Amino acid sequence: MSRHTADVVIVGGGLIGVWTAFFLARRKQRVVLIEKGVVGAQSSGTNFGNLRLQGRFPGQYPLSLRSQALWEEIEALIGEDCEFAQTGHLYLAYDDEERAKLEGYAQVSESHGLTIERLGPSDLRKRWPWLSEQAVAATFSARDATANPRLVTPAVARAARALGVTIIENACVTDVERSSGGFSVKTADGAHWSSSALVNAAGAWAVAIAERFGETAPIIPAGPPQFVTEPFPYLVEPSIQSVDGSVIFRQIPRGNIILAGYPRTAADPVNHRAPVPPAKTLAAMRALARVAPILAQCHVIRVWSGIEGYLPDMIPVIGPSLTMPGLFHAFGFCGHGFQIGPGVGLCLSEMIVEGATSTPLEPFSIGRFRESVAVSEKFRKEFDGA
Amino acid sequence: MAEIVVVGAGPAGINATERLCAHGHRVVLVDEGRQAGGQGYRRPSPGLDLDMAALMGTEAGKYEALHARFARLLPLIDYRPQTLVWAVEDNMLHVVQAGVASTLRFDVLVLATGAMDKVAPFPGWTLPGVFTLGGAQVALKDQGCLIGRRVAFLGSSPLLALAAAQYRKLGCEIVAIADTTPFASKLAALPALAQSPRTLWRGLSYLAGAMLAGVPVLHGVTPVEVVGDGHVEALILRDRRGRERHFSCDAIALGYGLKPETQLAELAGATLRFDEAFRLWLPQCDADGRAAPGLYLAGDGAAIGGADAAEASGGLVAMAVLADLGESVDERARLELRRRLARLRGFQKGLAKAFTWPVAQIRALPDEVMLCRCEEVRIGEVRQAMAQQLGPVEINRVKAMTRCGMGRCQGRVCGPALQEIVAGAAGVAGEQAGRLRAQAPVKPIALCVAGEAP
Ligand SMILES: Cc1cc2nc3c(=O)[nH]c(=O)nc-3n(C[C@H](O)[C@H](O)[C@H](O)COP(=O)(O)OP(=O)(O)OC[C@H]3O[C@@H](n4cnc5c(N)ncnc54)[C@H](O)[C@@H]3O)c2cc1C
Ligand SMILES: Cc1cc2nc3c(=O)[nH]c(=O)nc-3n(C[C@H](O)[C@H](O)[C@H](O)COP(=O)(O)OP(=O)(O)OC[C@H]3O[C@@H](n4cnc5c(N)ncnc54)[C@H](O)[C@@H]3O)c2cc1C
């Protein structure tokens, strides 16, 4: 059995794992990242690619904004282009209740310094004349962006490797223990690592690691179904979302329209399957045609989903373990980990190396599951009774 | 009574339906096409006066017989033409008919979805005027049109000579029939081909006819390039002696045999396995066509075998269904069909040996060649993505990184060549490159078919 030592071992080569590795390496840590498959193939590589700032959990804005600043300089940071584009995000409301919800979101965003435009039906018609006339109000945030999720994680992993991170693919962590000397991590192929810190960034599989140290969280593996159409003349610049959660879509410059539909569907993390029921494909198609009737003749060519961890309050777990010093959790990103990924990596690296981060992360403590947490309205609405 | 749905109204599906009907079952027969007949026995567009007897030649009798049988069957079945099955989930087919999506429940599903052309790219293959071989036949049978007046037939397939003969009958000039496989591999396959002397004879007679008419027939060629300014003007090949040959023409029919349409089978629960002879991922089934509980596969969609094998396997599948439903079947007839099918499929294995997929030629293609037409991905982009650190080594990851296979056809066209490029660049066997998994919709569907919320 081969034995190696490192300062930090990271379990999981998704976006969270690679960004954490990258920022730790910049802080001169000897880092090993272990991934059971290949880097970026799970939820980090299958997601919609939205970097949305509007309508987030209020307690997440400091982290989210810190993250967006990193996205805005991603090419300089990692030396590769990941199709980052600041195209803005348009939220649509179809009745007064939804309008009020948008206004609430807008005020939270503004309190964190974002600029939110409010649009009425006539502004919408002027700016995007092909939108259906049913929307009664909308908000637009120009700073919201998108990037190509299929490219990002491997690119960050390459940047981390260039800084000295050891990346091991096709190695599943089967055992983690803590002894006086630190953490001991074993993989299925018999390799053995020891380190003084351990990062649990194992996505939908992360609770298995937490439970080894007497902590848990009620994680549900699921994924929002995603769809893509054939290319259509370029028309849709921003990401557009119905605030009722029925559809979100964007267009890539090549012309394909990418859309996501809700509710989310349970996924099978054991067999690595995230099937999309045909009825959801039809529902998403209807929802898109309602928002943009001009697309009625456009064909859906492919569907997919991913396997992601969801928690009932729709808020991730980020921060130190409460039972095991040196262990840090970062999982359960509930459909919005792409945007905050770089920020999470940065904050974790600060916590691990400097002992603290200036970004408030208290709302994300795993400790909240010691009592039963309130189930969020979003969770109730956007899940299939999973 | 069990609800039986048959997908595909080619010889396999029609034969299965006929036999199930004869046992008193009510069958729903679903087909994407406008008219029954499938690919090989396709009928001309209504109102088009085409001499099908002349076109079908020695197969005219079978063609007439199949359509006559279908006409007699029609009043007894629930036939749904122009109906695309785009997804299977549990015991439900999701279909689009006349622009409206709906579902169709089944207890027993017989898939007789046939095949499509297998093609390999080469420089210039995306130039207008290059058609697939099957596409050239569809233009002929469906519309009575030729793809050009001076046509070159290129690839590796017994259908090259057949299609060329059909084109010649309609007055087209055949500038060449060029096969990438050396003549020696055809000779080596003769013993297997002799299992079906009639078909072998038919194939040889097409070639002989072409040669007598002075058509150049070449073996062991390497496609070099299609040249033309906005449209095919010539085909350049390297012959087996290494000489460059130039054939001026206005169209090219390109085909390397057929590729089963397996997406529905995969979605319905069939297991796929890489077949070395065909170098394709094929669904697994037993000798009678059972692929999973309640799932039966017949015809070219199960294993490439041609029209006669499709008919035989349709009959066998129907017997398997009947037997599994607890009904008695004529055991002697069943044994006879099994024997017949084994012989015909044995012949097809022989064909796969005689007309091989040019693995080495594909792996050696230059970087600039367009691999994925839908997404416009060149071979070099795939190789480059694979060569970088932490780059993809498996076909689905290659698709994710390069978009190759992500377009309208979902890799149905570029899949086999992509498989070779990936395996070649990764230095692994074809099988280890992995498999593009099927996803519904198996073919593109328009947003408007979803209609308003119920
Ligand atoms: C379909 C879909 C659409 C989405 N859209 C968006 C969006 O538009 N915007 C947004 O911000 N977010 C979006 N998300 C959410 C976002 O993708 C995720 O929150 C984020 O990718 C999570 O990253 P991660 O690193 O935690 O998880 P993952 O990417 O899942 O990575 C975890 C990794 O850990 C590995 N692993 C697990 N166990 C072990 C073990 N024992 N040993 C070794 N390795 C192990 C896994 O193989 C996996 O690669 C979406 C998610 C999905 C599924
Ligand atoms: C383009 C083409 C041309 C050919 N021409 C000849 C020829 O001239 N002579 C010859 O001997 N052989 C020809 N062949 C070979 C021919 O396929 C077989 O010999 C024979 O037709 C196989 O019969 P089958 O019943 O298995 O499938 P097919 O005859 O191919 O019938 C399959 C049917 O299934 C339908 N189908 C498939 N998928 C779906 C779906 N998702 N939803 C609904 N319906 C679906 C198709 O529309 C088709 O009607 C050709 C093959 C192709 C692909």
UniProtKB/TrEMBL annotation, chain A:
Top-level taxon: Bacteria
Key words of the record: Membrane, Oxidoreductase, Transmembrane, Transmembrane helix
GO CC annotation terms, alphabetical: cytoplasm
GO molecular function (one): oxidoreductase activity
Protein's UniProt keywords contain Protein transport: no
Keyword Membrane applies: yes
Annotated FAD dependent oxidoreductase domain residues: 7-351
InterPro entries, per database record: FAD-dep_OxRdtase, FAD/NAD-bd_sf
Protein's name according to its UniProt entry: FAD-dependent oxidoreductase
